[in-house]
């Protein structure tokens, strides 16, 4: 089967500066920080963590500052060291940034796990769980900042989503009570909140849930931030087949006013290995949501498109666990996605990946193959496209593993070879031929680059970005093929 790959040059993301005959080639550009942070992973170095030890981030722009709130997950955590050195550790990590690249560690939202949430979990799980706080979500409402949080016990439905408020995104936070709580026997699981407001009606809807029964949506009272109807647990919005094995969690709901549609991002599979992000859309904030092929998200099957999956560009160890995302806009209205990612091969080091989102012609989000680095855009022309490229097709099936609660068993943190999407090196020759690890032909006309390759049809967008693996500024592309898989590429330096 042959592929016809269209790469669109989108004027909205390009800065048309002065004309030049110089061909855009990868140029040296040091990364702002290293991927491996073991040298500063000790508890006393917490102020240097920046994008490190970030799991399940929630990012929001407040004024000219981005704030990130994340789960209490720390590589090489030592409560003994915290106690011995009298370190001011708490619960829910808070960071801030002016540029989405350099992050300053602010501290913790809470000194202790809220008592009501902790008691609910312990009393309903035989004294297990409630040792940390999961998946915070922050939003602003009428000058108040609302911080939603989850307390739970692993592999149990004894869970609690609570709400706290503050006059500042940095706190202090005042507890406002329980939003949704669940126990053994309930269909759903009260973790991973995300909220959207209908701009026409002012209605607010919270999406939440996990592999227990699927993902759910409940209406909130905008005045209180709690459910509109007391003890309401909402309705089903998304499922998978064999849910106790095949994980589906971390809903993230946003509204795109240009497209007048709501997008529900979800994460599949084990968080340490094949964690990956899918997305559906709807005309309504409460659903129903459909996927790339029009399939209802509530059916017992996997959905597409797939936006992220474990991947490896040449010359790098690669990344796993690229899931549980936050989606937000900058001051210009550009969309971004932030998620955890785990440095391979061990997949224990957690680094926040922030990527820019682009939109296909038919209104689906796709993400950059590289982390955002604030790269200045340039006018990309036909002559700039010829050269060497690395290309990855982002796809993945349900993991062929024995899982517990949708997660890997202890000691199985390493990816299997077939679970990694690896790049292939191709050369777009001036003659229009494609050579290298894939063969074919390419043609550029009217702002479109068509690649005739193997496998399937795709359409992607070109823009400037950072090649983190080679520490270069270069041309990148992203898009979807006709199977609902993401297609990533970067122009690399000619040898």
Structure description:
The protein has 495 residues and is mostly beta strands. It has 2 domains: 2-28 and 386-492, Lipocalin, CATH 2.40.128.10; 43-367, 5 Propeller (Tachylectin-2, Chain A). The chain contains 3 helices and 35 strands. The strands form 8 sheets. The chain has a 9-stranded mixed beta barrel. Strands 20, 21, 22, 23 and 24 form a 5-stranded antiparallel β-sheet that branches. A 4-stranded antiparallel β-sheet has the order 3-4-5-6, with no helix packed on it. The two termini are 30 Å apart.
Topology:
Layout: E1 2-9, E2 27-28, E3 58-62, E4 65-70, H1 79-84, E5 91-97, E6 104-110, H2 115-124, E7 134-141, E8 144-151, E9 159-166, E10 174-182, E11 194-197, E12 204-210, E13 214-220, E14 235-238, E15 248-256, E16 261-268, E17 276-282, E18 306-308, E19 311-312, E20 319-320, E21 325-329, E22 335-343, E23 350-359, E24 365-367, H3 382-385, E25 387-394, E26 403-404, E27 407-408, E28 421-422, E29 424-428, E30 433-436, E31 440-445, E32 448-454, E33 458-467, E34 472-481, E35 486-492
Parallel strand pairs: 1-33, 19-28
Antiparallel strand pairs: 1-32, 2-34, 3-4, 4-5, 5-6, 7-8, 8-9, 9-10, 11-12, 12-13, 13-14, 15-16, 16-17, 17-18, 20-22, 21-22, 22-23, 23-24, 25-29, 25-35, 26-27, 29-30, 30-31, 31-32, 33-34, 34-35
